[in-house]
């Protein structure tokens, strides 16, 4: 690897992380955080007593689009907030080839740089991307083939590139220790010996993962083992096999991205415009045959309950890290931030018709938190994402197999590890001293991070001690867990917070053994690397750790709500 590296981004620790106590007084940011937490409790009680319809928060200063989360228009559950327009075609990220080198490896090159994108029709937005203005190309990597990937950073600040879901050593993982300075590059070299899957890559700098991903930096990494083709699954890219990267964003009047411009965004950044592959509510032409959609929740925090507006069923054939044992028929599928799923849709009798993929959020999402303010008006209702326009069959049609792959049973050979997830800290103390008054005095981007993102986008607030795992906050110099190389462990994850959290583990894939002692649903019985843990729920995971990671480049485990990760909800572990 060639890079200028340090354990912290230059100046970032001092800029984003105020002292806990200075001259006998709490920092201004701590007071704001306490006010938010206290007001959440106060408003939760008010909401319970009055009902959501009696709350008029949209005009409060500093609350961002639609007021505070959950305080928007209160229409009937299941109603569509914004019906799709579908006037632009869905972009399909191109596949980046890897030319063969003299040593037999395949070489790929990525360049991180600023650009301008038309995310909304007729609106130019400054963004960041890989090999383009927004998102990045799809890397298709053959299983067992040695690859070399050069990532060059043409931004004005350090960043990293993490290979999410890839079984690679810690030195190649692209975690927060692997900073790429402006004008420098990093060379990755590894071999992926894992099942075929839809993985992805994105930045992972300590305290700044949220804004860097929000700015547009992400792309797909497909592990190709040929099993899908042998099974007859649709596999022609852009014909019957489509990437569907779903993200929400918030925009200013001038078209720039708005990041964490509301105090409630600390609970997880949610936007009010919905993009698929970097385009708001597009359409895609599909053939009247079996079609494969690779669903990726690329949002910072929002959950999507994917469903077709017509009620059409579909079949889940793969989870985060590989194919399932057999297809599972569903009419809706909940995916949390960073989760992926591959689904097959039967369009053989639908030529000439249209289908709308949407999120039926109102039926699921509000119940995932005990505080009404955590769910915004989109969470409480539903919204359209993508229109499928069914045309004539094209080429050889894929099929839905009865059986796909064998999922091996793992046997534990090490002690069980316990992980507890804690929510926003300091709520009790925040109840004292008039939280609402503190909130009412804030507006716009006050208190938020430096505006060094694309087009002057705020970088939000990172490195605050707000969310924790095992009552420990992320510290770059601390190794929280030590795992034996080659061991198979059960990790028990308990959510003690008031809202659902995700849990992601680097360097391996896991299986879900149980949720509160009950076997997971069939569509969760394959390989995964992200799991949604509901409030008061205990999830047991089992994984084998075959990739080494030392103390200089440890693996991470963390919540993949990026604003939680950036503000403490992450730990480090070695494998040796």
From TrEMBL:
Gene: cueO
Primary location class: periplasm
Subcellular location: Periplasm
Gene3D superfamilies reported for this sequence: Cupredoxins - blue copper proteins (2.60.40.420)
CDD domains noted in UniProt: CuRO_1_CueO_FtsP (cd04232), CuRO_2_CueO_FtsP (cd13867), CuRO_3_CueO_FtsP (cd13890)
The protein, known as: Blue copper oxidase CueO
SUPFAM superfamilies registered for this protein in UniProt: Cupredoxins
Region (Disordered) location: 1-25
Biased composition annotated in UniProt, kind: Basic and acidic residues: 13-25
């Amino acid at each position: 690897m060639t890079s200028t590296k340090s354990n912290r981004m230059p100046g970032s620790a001092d800029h984003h992380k105020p002292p806990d106590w200075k001259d006998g007084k709490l920092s201004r940011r701590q007071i704001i955080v306490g006010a938010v937490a206290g007001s959440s409790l106060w408003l939760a009680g008010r909401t319970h007593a009055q009902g959501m319809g009696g709350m008029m928060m949209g005009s409060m200063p500093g609350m961002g689009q639609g007021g505070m989360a959950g305080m928007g228009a209160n229409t009937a559950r299941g109603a569509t907030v914004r019906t799709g327009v579908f006037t632009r075609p869905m972009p399909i990220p191109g596949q980046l080839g890897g030319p063969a080198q003299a040593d037999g490896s395949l070489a790929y090159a990525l360049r991180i740089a600023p650009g301008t994108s038309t995310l909304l029709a007729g609106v130019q937005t400054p963004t960041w991307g890989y090999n383009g203005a927004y998102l990045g190309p799809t890397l298709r990597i053959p299983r067992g083939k040695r690859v070399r990937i050069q990532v060059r950073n043409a931004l004005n600040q350090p960043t990293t590139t993490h290979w999410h879901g890839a079984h690679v050593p810690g030195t190649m993982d692209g975690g927060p220790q692997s900073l790429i300075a402006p004008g420098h590059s990093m060379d990755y070299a590894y071999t992926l010996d894992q099942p075929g899957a839809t993985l992805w890559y994105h930045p992972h700098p300590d305290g700044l993962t949220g804004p860097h991903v929000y700015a547009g930096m992400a792309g797909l990494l497909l592990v190709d083992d040929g099993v899908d083709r042998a099974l007859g699954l649709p596999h022609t890219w852009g014909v019957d096999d489509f990437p569907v990267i779903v993200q929400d964003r918030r925009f200013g009047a001038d078209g720039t991205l708005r990041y964490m411009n509301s105090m409630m965004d600390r609970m997880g950044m949610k936007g009010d415009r919905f993009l698929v592959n970097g385009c708001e509510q597009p359409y895609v032409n599909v053939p009247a045959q079996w079609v494969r959609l690779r669903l990726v929740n690329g949002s910072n925090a929002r959950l999507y309950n994917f469903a077709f507006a017509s009620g059409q069923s579909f079949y889940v054939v793969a989870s985060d890290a590989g194919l399932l044992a057999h297809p599972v028929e569903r009419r809706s599928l909940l995916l949390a931030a960073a989760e992926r799923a591959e689904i097959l849709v039967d369009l053989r009798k639908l030529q000439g018709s249209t289908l709308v993929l949407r999120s039926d959020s109102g039926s699921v999402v509000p119940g995932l938190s005990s505080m009404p303010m955590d769910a915004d008006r989109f969470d409480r209702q539903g919204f359209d994402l993508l229109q499928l326009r069914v045309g004539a069959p094209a080429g050889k049609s894929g099929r839905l197999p009865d059986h796909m792959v064998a999922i091996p049973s793992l046997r534990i050979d090490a002690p069980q590890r316990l992980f507890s997830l804690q929510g926003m800290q300091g709520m009790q103390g925040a109840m004292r001293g008039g939280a609402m008054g503190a909130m009412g005095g804030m507006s716009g981007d006050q208190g938020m991070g430096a505006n060094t993102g694309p087009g002057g986008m705020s970088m939000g607030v990172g490195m605050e001690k707000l969310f924790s795992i095992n009552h420990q906050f992320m510290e770059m110099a601390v190794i929280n867990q030590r795992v034996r190389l080659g061991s198979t462990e059960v990790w028990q994850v308990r959510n003690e917070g008031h809202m659902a959290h995700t849990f992601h583990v680097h360097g391996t894939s896991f299986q879900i053994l149980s949720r509160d002692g009950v076997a997971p649903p069939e569509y969760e019985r394959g390989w995964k690397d992200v799991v949604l843990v509901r409030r008061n729920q205990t999830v047991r995971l089992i994984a084998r750790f075959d990739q080494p990671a030392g103390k200089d480049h440890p693996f991470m485990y963390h919540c993949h709500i990026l604003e939680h990760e950036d503000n403490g909800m992450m730990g480090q572990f070695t494998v040796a």
